[in-house]
Amino acid sequence: MSQNGGFESACRALAEADPVLSTFIDAIGPCRLTPAPDPFVSLVEAIVSQQLSVKAADTIFQRLVAICPRSLVTPKAIFSIPEEELRGVGLSRQKIAYVKDLAERWIAGEIRPKEFHRLPDEEVIARLVAVKGIGRWTAEMFLIFALNRTDVLPVGDLGLKKAVQRAYRLRKIPSPERIQKIAEPWRPYRSIATWYLWKSLNNVTKGS
After folding, report:
1. Catalytic pick from 18, 121, 151, 157?
2. pTM assigned to the model
């Protein structure tokens, strides 16, 4: 979806559908949700980042980039790098198994990112969660940030839960079912609405 056309119409539709979102759209400004350039790199980075701070994850990922031939994180590069070298950059044995499995499936053609663009969201998720270390949340983030899908609602995301609780003045963290009900008017732009809610946390607490 293009920034100049689609996002503007999406924001108008969301503002009309939900006054809470309208306030955030006015305060935050244009949506800056842009697709990641390389789907394999996106998934490797997501695996590396699991259960780590942003700073720690970025440090390890940059070390990983440095040991790849020509600093290119490709399936063949990840598959060929010895486990000892991957351990040396800070990856756990479990995460090494995850990225190796991802690379092997990519090389074997079990994961064909070009096909993802014509598949529905749930089919993409089903294919990705078959890979070790990729759960539904990681697959949903891939849909939003790598494929630029506009109607993804990651109800298990803690940031979204906190943002919905704060924005809609709920007494406790909302259940997935409650979020789905609140988000019904956001269709078909639930990814865009989610982005604004994530940003609203930063906007309120600083100015995750």
Report:
1. 157
2. 0.82
Q: What is the CATH number of domain 39-145?
A: 1.10.340.30
State the virtual CA torsion across 108, 110, 111, 112 in degrees, nearest 10: 80
Active site residue 157: yes
Residues with Cβ within 8 Å of residue 115, at least 6 apart in sequence: none
Per-domain residue ranges for the chain?
Answer: 3-33+152-205, 39-145
Which own/partner contact pairs does 120-129 have at CB distance under 8 Å and 24+ positions apart? 121/149, 121/151, 121/152, 128/43
Do the beta carbons of residue 180 and residue 161 sit within 8 Å? no
pLDDT tens for 152-176 read 999 999 899 999 999 999 999 999 9
Domain made up of 3-33+152-205: CATH architecture: Orthogonal Bundle (1.10)
Q: Mean pLDDT, to the nearest integer, of 24-34?
A: 93
